[in-house]
Amino acid sequence: MRNRDFELLAPAGNINIFKAVIEAGADAVYVGGSMFGARAYANNFDEEELLYAIDYAHLKGVKVYLTVNTLLKNDEIEKLYDYLLPFYERGLDAVLVQDLGALKLIHDRFPDLSIHTSTQMTVTGIDGVRFLKQFGVQRVVMAREVSLAEMKEIHEKCGMEIEAFVHGALCYSYSGQCLFSSMLGGRSGNRGRCAQPCRLPYCAGNKKDTYILSLKDMCGIKDLQKLKESGVYSLKIEGRMKQAGYASGVVAYYRRYIDSMKEVSDKDYKNIAGLGNRCGFTDKYYFEHNGTDMVTFEKPNFVSDASDELPQFSKIKIQGKLTLKEAEPGALTVSCGGYRFTSYMDPVSHALKAPAERKNVAERISKTGDTPFEFENIDITMDNDIFVPNGALNKLRREAIEGLQNEILMQYKRTASASYSWKSKKTSEIKPSGDPKVIASVRDGKQLYRLLEYDNISEIYIDSSKYGRRDFVKEFNDDVFCVNNAEKKAYLALPVIFRRSTRDYFETISDQLKKIDFEGFIVRNYEEFFWVKTRFAGKKIVTDHNMYTYNDMAKSMFFDNGADADTMPLELNQKEINRRNNKGSQMIIYGYYPLMVSAQCVHKNSYKCDRTPQITYLKDRYNKIFPVWNNCSECYNIIYNSCPTVLFNNMQKIKNAGIDSLRLDFTFEKPEEIDTVMAAFESNSADGIKEYTNGHFKRGVE
Prior knowledge:
With about 700 residues, the chain is α/β, with parallel strands linked by helices. The strands form six sheets. Strands 1-2-3-4-5-6-7-11 form an eight-stranded parallel barrel, surrounded by six helices. The chain is elongated.
C-alpha cells in the first residue's frame, strides 16, 4: 500500500520519461515547458505535449508541476499570463517560481493555482517563509543547504508545506546566488543556462589543481524517517536532463523504501549508486553545515550503468456493461473509481442472416487500442438473433471510453478570469530628478575612514562582517557616530545568508540596535526583509542586487511591502535597464561582483578551519585569479570575480536611465586603491584602473 506521508516528486525531460517515472511510482512529476524553466537546454515539453501530459497524469492520479523558475525581464513577464493560461485551464496542479513578479502575477490572476517557491529563491529560514506565505505560497522548496533541524523549526513555526531535495546533483553555491557561469560566459543560472564552472578544476592557494567546487551527488534514501520527523512532505529527485533509465530506476527504489520505511539494504544502496553518481553520494547537508567529504576533489564525471529498459506501461482498469436488446438502443456503460459514462447506439435490428455472436461482440468491445484504459471485465446482456454492425460497436466503445475519460478529467479543468494585460512603466516616462546620489559600501575600518573624506558620498553601507559578535553593537555605534559626524547617512548591510544561528544572534542585539541613530538596512534575502520590516519600524530598507528586480512587477512587490529602494540586478544590460522603472533604484557602478555564495569553505576544504576571516585565491585553467572571502561568523564563502566591474565610462547613459543612486562597492581595496577608484569616478573614466570589466552592461544574458 502506498505511503501517503510523503509525496515522491520526480523529474521528466520528455514524455517517455514522464510516463516511466509515473509507472515507477511517482506521486507528482515536475516538467519544464517551452519558456521560463531553469533547464533551458533540456528537452522541454511543447504546449501540445504538456497538455497531453497533464491529462495522462491525472488519469493515473498523479500531479503535474510546471517550472517557471527563472528570472523574467519586463518584456517576458508580459507574456506569462498567456503562456500559463492553457495549462491552468487544463488542470495544471502547481507552478514552481523564482521571480517575485511572476509569483505576484500568478497569485493575482490564477488564485487557485498552487505556487511552490523554487530553491532558486534561497529560502533558508522562518522569516523568509513567513514573507512568502502572505502571497499565497503553498509550498517552499528549501535551499539544499538547510538542515533537517532547521526544516523542522520552519514547519512547526510556519505551518508551511516543505519540499526538500533527496537525490541528485548538488550546486556548490546556494541556488539563486550564483553568477559564475553568467559573468564568465554569459550563460546565466538564473535564466536556466548554467555552464557548470563549478565542475572544472581550480588551484586553491599553493595546492595542486582539484575539483574543489564540485560536490558529490545527494542521496537521502537512508534518511526517510528523519525527513518525516522534520516535517518534510515532498521528496524531490533532481534530474530533468537525465535519461529515462536513471529517472525511473531512482524513483522505483525510493517508492519501495517510502512504502516500507525499512532500513535500506547495502545491496540496494549500491544499486542506486550504480544508476548514476558523481564520485559517490552525500547526505551531509541534512546534518552538517559543510565538509570536505561532500566535495568530489576528483573529476566529477557522472558514472551510470542505468539500463535503457523502461517499465512496462500499465493501463487503467475499467468495468464495462453492454446491453444489446432487439428494437432498443444499444448501450455501453464504462466505469472506473466512482466515475461512470454511458454511450448509446441506434436501436438493435433483427438478424436476417448470421446473428451476432457473444464472443465476437466481446472481442470487439474489448479493443481499447492506444487509450490509457483496458477492460477488467465486461458484463454483456444481449438477445439472440440480433444484428450489430462492427462499425457501430467500435463507435459505441470509442464514445464510451472518451466519455469516461472526460468525466474523470472534468474535475481538474478550470475557466480563467478575464484576459490579463500588464505593461511596465518605461524609464523614458520617468524624468530623472537631478544628479543621482553617490553611495559607498565598505567592509573594514580603513575603507570607512578614507571614504568619510569624500564630500560627494552621501551614504555609507557598512557590512556587518566588519564586526565581531562580542563588540558588534559598540563598534557599530562608534562607526555610525563617525558617519553622522561627517554629515553622511549610515546603513547596516546584513549578511548575505540569514540562517537560524545568524537570526538568533541578531535577535539578541535587536533592542540595542534600535537605540543607534543609523538610517536603515541593506537586506540580501527574504528572511532579512521580513525580519527588519517587523522589528525595526521607521528604519529604511534597501534590497540588494541579489533580491532580484528584473521586472517592474517584482520591484513593486518589494516597494509595496516596505522597501524604500532597490539595487539593480547585475545581469541586466543597458537596453534592459532603459526598459525598466528605475525610480528608487540604485546601481552598482564599481566593485568586484560576487560570483558564488556557498555554505562550503574553500579555505577549510583546502587547509583546515581556523575560524579566521581571510582571502583564499582560486586559479582557473586560464590563470585567472578569483578571491574567496570566508565570513566565519555566519559560515559562508563568497567567490568574487577576478577583476572589478567599472562602469565609469558609461556614466551619461546610466544617468539618462533615471537611476536614483550610484553605488561603489569596496571589498578588498586598500585606502590608496580607493583613492584611485574615486579619482577615476570623478573623471567619468576608468583611467588608472589596470584591469576591469564592463560586466553585463553591454552584453547582458539570454
